[in-house]
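User: Could you check the structure of this?
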Amino acid sequence: MVQFTVNKFFFLDFFNFCWVFQKFPFFCVTLYLKQVWDMNDWLYEGQHGFRPGYSCESQVITVCQDIADSLDEVISIDAIIVDFSKAFDLVPHDQLVTKLAASGVDSRVVIWVREFLVGSTERVRVGGHPRESK
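Assistant: Sure, the predicted structure tokens are below.
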């Protein structure tokens, strides 16, 4: 009789492989879209999200520096603060895919994004119990 022993690290390696395999398409699509945005100059130079070397922290530093410079030069400041944290939850996915297709993005990427977005649901666990999001 043949006995098999399974190393406990096998499960961790398999889990890591599955995680990488699952995230790889996201990485490829994101990289492609960044290249398209850069080539077409679609992002405003002050855009800090979705750009390498930029972050929320760098955006806050830039705003603080702009305010400090305005105060030094005795220039009045008007500010409007908008919370976009739920903005992506409200975007109609079909319109997003239509605009993506019209922008000249490769049709295979458009199909991948459509398949990912349309009809997708998210699940969260609250207090140990699964619960579907609205």
